[in-house]
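Figure 2 data, in text form.
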Amino acid sequence: MKIIKAELVLKEPDTRPLFTGGEVTRQTLVSAEMGRYLNMAIVNFSKGARSKFHTHTSDQALIVTAGKGIVATEQEERIVSLGDIVFIPAGEKHWHGATKDSDFSHIYVLSTGSETKQLED
């Protein structure tokens, strides 16, 4: 067993082209490099920052830990807040990020080896 104190995990800038609209940081909690089957990280979005449309090759779960965010597919946009859990099936085109008036953080859970395909420039 391992206890991870999220507030002690280093926030690293995430400058991948997947993100737009503002600063995004990442706190790696569990990764394949640790010999695990799941990848888990906290992603912190500044006001208005979001991912671009993308898909994953495995299912994804998002657990909202702070602020107010948006999770969207081609069909709908939903506002989410602290305590909400979002399930995104493998292959579903989606994006997620902060609203214009609130920072936003979530923990994501993905299978090790899952690939992300960015679908928006």
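Caption note: Residues 53 and 95 are 5 Å apart (CA to CA).
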